[in-house]
Give the backbone structure.
Amino acid sequence: MTKPATVHIVDDDEAMRKSLKLLMKSIDLHAETYHSAEDFLANYKATTPSCILMDVRMPGIQGLDLLTHLPKINIHAPVVMMTGHGDIPSAVKAMKAGAVDFIEKPFDQEALANTIKQCIHTSTVHSKSELQQIFSKKLALLSRRETEVLERLVKGKINKVIATDLNISVRTVEAHRANIMSKLDAKSLSDLVKISIYSQVS
Amino acid sequence: MSEFSEFSEFDHDELNEKLNEFLKYLEKTGRSTLDNKERLLLESLHIHQIELEMQNRELKSSQEDLEKSRDKYADLFDFAPIGYASFNKNGVIEEINLTACKLLGSERSTLLGKPFSVFLTLSDSMAFFKHIKKIISSAEKSRIKLQLKSLAGIIYHIQIESTLRISDNGDKIIQSAIVDISDHVAAEQALSESKNQLHLIINALPVLVAQIDLHIQLIFSNKAYDKSFADKKKRKTDRHLIDRIGNENFALLEPYIKVALEGHEVSCEVALTIGSQKISYHVNLLPNPDAHGTVNNFFMIMIDISTYKQNELASMTHLTSLAHEARIYLIGQMTTEIAHEINQPLSAIANYSAAGIRLQNSEKLEVEDITAILNDIDEQVHRASNIINHLKKFSKKRDLQLSKTNINALIQEVLTFLVAEKPRHGIKIQTTLNEPIPYTHVDTILIEQVLLNILRNAVEALIESQQKKPLITVKTASTDNEILILIADNGPGLSYELLDGIFRPFFSTKESGIGLGLSICKSIIESHHGNLWATRNAEMGTTFHIQLPISNQTLQPLKKSK
């Protein structure tokens, strides 16, 4: 019997910690919970396989700060960041800071379970360079206008603002957006962010 | 005796010497001798003569004294500040002093023998004769006021006080003191004129004025008062206030009347019933103490403030609708935070239920686990619905509603709204809430709006400032009659210019701001009879001060809409 993988959950909301722990249990994962970044730093014990599931918003040390701090203290467990719905700038920052993935609250439990599992069993995940290749190919399919719209979408701009920026109508932006989603085979804005971030990783 | 007059200046001894000399002379010249009898007679005659001379001298000196004294009394008579004259039974002047002469404008010589009536008008002449008759018949002192025209044409008001004297030859003489009372009469006239003017003005005033005595009887009431509170029985006396304003209205005023009769000025706002109408009055009760400080009556001044009340209501309605707009704007600004707040319990619920379903499917779930999960879900449902209800309440347009409030509890509630905001930027919120805090009557939604607005401003200021240790402190304190809320940040602070400017409408330092937030906050606090202002902190940042009265609704009712 293989050793059960551990998920380290860092969140200041008690209900979130408790419900996530139960959710992990339901997919046969062991969970350790921490109510703050400070709590995590004090009590984390490295186990393998494992991953860290962390809220971007926390009192005291912020999620992003902890994320950038981890490699310095020799913690290399993959990190999945939880962000607020539509908080694209935070998600982008998290990805750039080295998070493997991010997931928006409230999450699709199926997606969360998959993301966590993929994180833990990194072997099943495409390597970053592979991903970059795949995504770059897809991005090449976009028209110039679509690229412009995508660039703005992943900065967290809403359709209305993009329309003003590019001097086109909101409807046109919506049409471009739908095209982008279908060309990139993305289901959500967060998929777009991931594709865009990975393709930039060099 | 005349031949001895030259001796009058000599005293007794000198006279004796002279007499002896004379006798010697007689012996030398005429007769050789005088017999003893003759000599004795002569001597005694001479002594007698000397005594008479002495008596004469005494009489002369006392006559001089009398003359001096008479002159003195004549002067006193003539130069007295009061005019004196005596009249015969026909009113002819028999004696008159200089003061009276001056009054009549002529010499004594001209005036003596003139009838006094020539200086009087016809009607006053009649009165003067009646006065004389009365004194003659009753022999009692009497007084009369007359108008006198002097020979110089000057009009005087005089008062004559007369007594009866019977002269040596039995004539009845009227002795009168004549006093010039022109100044007094003029002063009296001026007084009555100003009284009339005052009356005229008081009656023309739209303000209701009444003077009321210790027995709550009306001493005076002006036209406006009589118009509003007419005495149906039209009585001049026994006018009790209750008869005018009715029992119901009187009951409202009675406590204040008591205070006024105790000597304290007091004012109140009351809604009195007149006919079928309710009219709001501002009533001022002014004690009217006498020279000894005793209050025997007071003035009741009433101003109809119905129009003002209506305007106030209109402006309050305006404020509530403006405040509502501002709240909607505020909520709009907070959508991210609010979404996060709602997302937290929703995510937890989703996690619980997904986990429950999975565990159920894999048959790992015990009955106790189901109960525990469902309880957890229920808790989160409440958490989410609380936020939504609060938001609903906060965004609803509503009239002012005052309720007994614990400000500390209200602050805690508002701070939960900021929970989502502060961790994102590492802002620490420190509270020092003074317990126990007195209850106050406020509109909770409006005060919450003010607190939220100021707190959000503080958060924004701190985010912009890149402050390393951003801190917001919230303090409360109370005195006997007010509550103070202090909200301080350690951000960059405001310039002195901005400290006032931020409360002006359409003033904003933010690009996206509409600049109404703080001006509405100020209006809200002022509508609660409080104050809102900002100061610079000694070290850094800004402190907002909210001062709210501890409401005593009986003395200072807050503005209510209906």
